[in-house]
Amino acid sequence: MSFKNKTVIITGASRGIGKAIGLRLAREGANIVIASKSVEENPKLGGTIFSAAKEMEDAGGRALAVQCDIRFEEQVQAVVDQAVSAFGGIDILVNNASAINLTTTEKTEPKRFDLMYDINVRGTFMVSRACIPHLKNGSNPHILNLSPPVNMDMKWFANHLAYTISKYNMSMIALGLAEELRKYKIAANTLWPRTTIATAAVKNLLGGDMLMNMSRTPDIIADAAYYILNKPSASCTGNTFIDEQVLANEGITNLDMYSLIPGAKLYNDLFI
To answer: Is residue 222 part of a domain?
Structure first.
């Protein structure tokens, strides 16, 4: 299937995984709507909605940069309205925006809990809700959440309960929408990396340069997303995909090109 002139909303697409997915689909001629907060560059994070839009246009797509904090439904609706006005509809939604705080319950401040819940859970739900009326008229419509399989091994709850339940809720939203929207042939799936991904969050919050050097680039997620979003929405739905498995199913088993440091030992991501 072709992505030419398909309209894709990606939350948190000014940098990292969201931007990589946008660039991958822009190279196929898609219209990319960058829904993110960043309008001024933070030296520790890099990138804005405007710099990302320029890169996507240079890659061959059309881009629309819309400042949006998905915690606020009026801003979410503005993204949807502007996307439809600019491009005529919505075909794909990628729920990528996410907050992370890996702390135990006693050390999780209420404001940190609220931030993760409001972005990861409520935000994902509200963006999906706003897009559904337009996805019903979309071409091979897909919703893809960047969240993990719901792994009930207790070790994933022991050290960062608040983050775990927020990410699992993102996945349950996708699984619930898969069944709810099946009659409209709108797919809803999740995608998660087997290894850590070299993003600002990994460098600044999780493990610095050491963990970055044990990570893969966001391109592996972008390529996996490309293959998922290319599948028939009527039948490819309700899945919790892992990037390596997606690529293996496409006959891609040599993944050396995705390592930030060729030949380096890789670090497994959470929930794997």
So the answer is: yes
Average pLDDT value for the chain:
96
Length of the chain: 272
Domain-embedded: residue 28: yes
pLDDT (tens digit, 9 = 90+) per residue, 19-41? 999 999 999 999 999 999 988 87
| Any domain includes 37 | yes
Residues 6+ apart with CB under 8 A from 111: none
Q: Is residue 189 a contact partner of residue 239, using CB atoms and an 8 Å limit?
A: yes
Catalytic residue at 227?
no
* 12, 33 contact by CB (below 8 A): no
According to DSSP, the residues that pair with 63 across neighbouring strands are 32
Q: Look up the domain containing 125 and give its range.
A: 7-199+218-253
CB 229 within 8 A of CB 25: yes
Identify the CATH number of the domain in which residue 83 sits: 3.40.50.720
Q: Which amino acid is at 9?
A: I
For the question of whether the overall pTM of this predicted structure is more than 0.70, the answer is yes
Select which of 163, 168, 258, 267 is catalytic: 163
